[in-house]
Amino acid sequence: MNITLFAYLNIRNPMVAWEVAIGRMRSVSDVNSEKFGVSVWAYSLLRKYAMSGLDRRFLNELLLESVRQQKFSNSCSRLEDLYFFESEYDAHAALERWGISGCREFVAKVNFSVNRLTKVDSEWITSYLDSDERDWMAHYWSGAVLGEKPLTEVLASGIGYIDRKDLRRRAYRSIIDRWPTSTPLLAMACCAFAEYGLEDIALVRPAIFKWERSIEGAHFIDLRDLNLHEEKIVKALSSCKFRSEIPPVILPDDDSSFFSLPDLSEMDFSFVNDDCLTEFQSIHQSANKF
To answer: What is the CA radius of gyration of the chain?
Structure first.
């Protein structure tokens, strides 16, 4: 089913900028062959909580996933799936309530091919994510409304095309500024996704995992399509070149390489909290997918 949704895409985050430049939003749960990683949005939130000492929020996100697995397994996951709003008005209202109304420039329409969709009231998160209480989690997943001014957020599984070309161009320019010699790879991904819908090409895959007594966060770039679909990629580049639509590229000085990978290590994190580690292991074992 194809629907129109609206997303907040903060391209100041480099991994968001990479995906926006390609024009793609894809949920982890849409990658059926592999159950690996978390969504860019979820990773960004967990990293913020870990680095800001917001341990309770980190734990509650994991507990929310545990409640979903146990009692609402047909609902989309906050860890795997994508966050949207039903309208541009709702997106702007959310930014207003969250105190970031100055970021309206990052709201974009997304043409989304949905596999599964869950609507919930984000006011439960705003009001209770810092709380030691747990009863609210079932209310959140049931779709219950909190108070008189609910703010509906849409969790969705699938893949979408970002409609705003101006935002995509801004995202691409930010990658040029940050990792100029990664642009040959990014340009290939932009053309191949636009021309042939290669859904995984150069896909950013953030992941969280256990390492000894800590929770670690890291990123990977999926490069397998470069070998699997070489002919399509070449044709896509030719088509874009014919239309003068190939984005600018900057080649490495090293003659032995065609591109460099974006260095996402600045987005890595390490987090030590025994309660979070125990809950993380529990949901990992239950789902075997993070």
So the answer is: 19
pLDDT tens series, the chain, 290 aa: 899 999 999 999 999 999 999 999 999 988 655 667 899 999 999 999 999 999 999 999 999 999 999 999 999 999 999 999 999 999 999 999 999 999 999 999 999 999 999 999 999 999 999 999 999 999 999 999 998 889 999 999 999 999 999 999 999 999 999 999 999 999 999 999 999 999 999 999 999 999 999 999 999 999 999 999 999 999 999 999 999 999 999 999 887 789 999 999 999 999 999 999 999 999 988 766 54
- What distance in Å separates the CA atoms of residue 148 and residue 154, rounded to the nearest whole number? 19
What tokens does 232 get?
């399509």
Quickly count: other Cβ atoms within 10 Å of residue 231's Cβ: 8
How far apart, in whole angstroms, are the C-alpha atoms of residue 171 and residue 162?
12
